[in-house]
Amino acid sequence: MGTLRRFGVFGLFCFFHLAASNPSNVKADPSISASPATIRLGLTQSLSVRCDIPAGWGSIDSVILSQVDGTAVHPLAEITPSIGVISTLAAEDAKVTGALNPAGNYLQVTRSFPQVATSGVYSCEGVGTNSLGKSVSFSVQVRVSTEYASQPEYVNEIITLHKQQQNTAQLLADAYATGNATQHLLDKAARRIRQINDNCEPVVGTGCSDPSLPVGQHVITVTPNDGLGGIKVLCDVRVPGDGWTVFQKRFNGSVDFYEDYAAYENGFGNVDGGEFWLGLKNIRRLLLENNDENTLRIDMTEQGTGFNFTRVYPVFMLGDESGSYTLFLDGYDDGGTGMSANSGARFSTFDKDTSGGCPSSLRIAGWWFETGCGYVNLNGLYGLSGGEASMFWYEIYNHPRHSMSRTEMKFKRRQVPTVHF
C-alpha cells in the first residue's frame, strides 16, 4: 500500500479546502457521507463511508479515504486513474469500490459489523487538475458516532438469531435425510438396471441405423413394429450405425410436387434413385418406431451458385392424421425466419387448406403452411427463380428470391445422453 499517501488533516469535522490555485470555475464541491451516521452497537450490520467528487470539479489524480484518530491518519483506500482502487483492509472485513469517469467520481468503504473502533472521524482527500490546467485539492470529513441499543432490542435480536440457527439446523437435517433417501432410490434403480441388462440380448440398430450399412446412400425396406407392413426407404449413411432416413429428395424437377393431400399422405415419386416424397403416414410410422425421439436434417444446394447449406433441428415430431400431421420442431434458433416458423402448423395442400389464411396461389405444393405462409417451402415449384412459390428458405439470405436446386429432408433417432449410476 505504498501508493497510499497522507495529505494531512485540515480540520476536525466536515472541513472543506480548495488550494489557492483553484479558481471559481469549479461547479460542485466534493462531499463525504456515512450510512448510518450512528452505529448501534451489536445491531448495525454494516457501515458505508462514501466520498463523492462531482464531474464538474476537475480531473482527478488521486483520492484517499482515511480514518482519523486524533493526529494520526489511517488510510483505508485509494483510487487513481492508473492503478484503480486499492485497499489496506482485509477483504473479509470490508468492501471497497470506486470509479473515475465523466459522469462522476466516488470512493466507498463498507465495513461489516462495525464496533466502537470503527467509529470516529473519516476524511476524504484528493488532488487533481481543473479545466484551466490548475492544481486543485480538497479535504472533507464526517464523524460516525456510536450508541447502545435498549435491552429489549438485544433480547429480540438474540431470539431472532436463535430461531435462524434452529431453522438452519433443521434444513441441514432434512437435506441429509433427503440425500440418504435419494441415494437409496438411485442404488435400487442401478441394481434393477443391472438385472435387466444381465437378462437382455444386446440391442442392434435397425433400419438406417443398421451398423452393417456402409457409408453412402442405400435403399432398404424397414418394417416397423406396428403390424402395417414394410416401407421402402432411402438411407443416407454418413457414419455406420447412425444413418439418416430420407423422406424428401429433389434434384432435377422430374417429379411434380403439385399433388393433392392424398398423394402427400401416401407418398409419391421414386425412392430408387429418383425424386420422391415418402408420405406423411410412412414418416409418422417411422418416427414412432424411434419412440418419437428424432432429429431433422435438411441439406440444400442453392440454384445458380451451387452453395450448400445444412440446417439441423434436434427435436422433430409429427402429429397424427386427425391433426393433419402437425409439425413440431425445436432446438435450433433460426431467428424465426426458417422452418421454426412452421412449427405448430398443420400440413396443407391446394385441396385441403389447414393453414388458417395462406392463399391458395401460394399453396402450390403440400407443406406445413402457417397463417402467413411461412418462410420455407422446399416442396415449391422446381426451377422457379425466386419467389414464395419456389423452393426457398428465407432465413439463409433473409429473402425468398434465392431458390434451391437440390434438397434432402431426413431424420434419425435423437441421441439421448446416457445416465450413469
TrEMBL record:
Q: Which domain of life is it from?
A: Eukaryota
The protein here is known as: Fibrinogen-related protein 1
Q: Which SUPFAM superfamilies match?
A: Fibrinogen C-terminal domain-like
Task: Please tell me one Gene Ontology term that the record gives under cellular component.
Answer: extracellular space
Q: Which residue intervals define the domain Fibrinogen C-terminal in the entry? A: 191-415
Which PROSITE patterns does UniProt cross-reference here? FIBRINOGEN_C_2 (PS51406)
Q: Signal peptide span per the entry?
A: 1-21
Q: Cite the entry's keywords alphabetically.
A: Signal
